Amino acid sequence: MLTCIALWVVLVLCAAALWQSPLTLTAIYIAGSAVCLVLWWSKQAGVMYACGFVLGPGGELVAVAYGAWEYAEALFLIPLWLPPAWGLAALILFRLATSIGPESRRT
After folding, report:
1. What is the mean pLDDT of the chain?
2. Measured between alpha carbons, how far is 44 from 20 in angstroms, rounded to an integer?
3. Domain that holds residue 44
4. Residue 93 half-sphere exposure toward CB, CA atoms < 13 A
């Protein structure tokens, strides 16, 4: 559980420090995604990542298109790094949930 929280803190700090360098931030998030998916791989984890990758930015696209907010350094209304950030967020939440659920006691 502490690993998930630490990873979330690192990802947030990367966004705060590197939002003006979207390609660098995107590369970091893609690399982080690859490492997390390899370390924590399961079919369910892959589905959670994919859902976060697609659904999170999809909702943000709608909100941005209707003027709810806007992003600096955006590409097609949202930053390039946003899909992998949402994918990682979903994966971290999934990992947290499964680490405290009844199934985690079997390992």
Report:
1. 92
2. 33
3. 2-101
4. 11
